[in-house]
From TrEMBL:
Keywords: DNA-binding. Pfam families: TetR_C_27, TetR_N. Residues 37-56 bind DNA. Residues 14-74 form the HTH tetR-type domain. PROSITE patterns: HTH_TETR_1, HTH_TETR_2. This is Transcriptional regulator, TetR family. The lineage of its organism: Bacteria, Bacillati, Actinomycetota, Actinomycetes, Micrococcales. It comes from Cellulomonas gilvus (strain ATCC 13127 / NRRL B-14078) (Cellvibrio gilvus). It comes from the Bacteria.
Amino acid sequence: MPKIIGGSLHEHREQTRQKLFAALSTLMAEQGFDAITLAEIAQAAGVGRTAVYNHFPDKEALLVGFITHETEQYAATLQRALDDIDDPVERLRTYVSQQIQLKRVYHLAPGPELRSVLSRQTQARVREHVVVVERILRDILTDGIASGAFPEQDLDTTVPLVNACLSGRGVPDEGPERDRAIEQTETFVLRAVGAPVLIPA
């Protein structure tokens, strides 16, 4: 019988999942999702290959589990950052800066885009979790329109445009260039949704 990690079977299962997610994340950054095998993931995680199948039936299921976990963690962090802010413009600024700071491994991985290597069913499941974050932006914009901070607009068009702008960025990792890029992106998004933007003198 394999040795149990942690104080209970539940802890063992959770810690094993975390090891698998960490291994997947590292391997994806190095070689891309399409090039990785479950055997490599198990070896990098320090678990037996059969342990992987106890949690996920295949590599795509592991990816969905990883993305679900990452999205839930990120959405909770984002919501905490927004909880104490009432002004819609400042809420949108916070959303933009949080999105810029987020590094989604599954967007940055080398190799073909995930859309080209995943089944349609898995693509749909991944999309479900992206919607969680989009809903937060939609709520910010809806409240802003209701309060008069933003003009009336079609959110079915605006929301994906804003997120596309944020996910396709090339923001430097550090230094004044990073601060300037974040500030310019915030200004761009605010103008795009029709918010008043104060330009420094």
